[in-house]
Design brief:
The protein is α/β, with parallel strands linked by helices. It contains 2 helices and 3 strands; from the N terminus they run βαβαβ. Helix 1 links the parallel strand 1 and strand 2.
């Protein structure tokens, strides 16, 4: 697996982890590097915005999000 993530998996809270775990498993199955962040657009809007704005420059090709 490439060390630099190409997929960002973000969710609003850790209560979304059981559902989003399916996305982790697909990435692992296809040997795709990914990162996971818990970012609330409501509680931490600036951090959420910065994450999205910097995604392409950090090498992310896809963002999978849950709220």
């Amino acid at each position: 697996m490439n060390d630099k993530p190409v997929i960002g998996i973000i969710m609003g809270s850790d209560s979304d982890l059981p559902i989003m775990e399916k996305a982790f498993n697909v990435c692992k199955e296809f040997n795709i590097s990914y990162e996971v962040k818990i970012l609330s657009a409501h509680r931490t809007p600036e951090e959420h915005s910065n994450y999205s704005k910097s995604a392409e420059s950090r090498g992310l090709k896809v963002i999978i999000a849950a709220a």
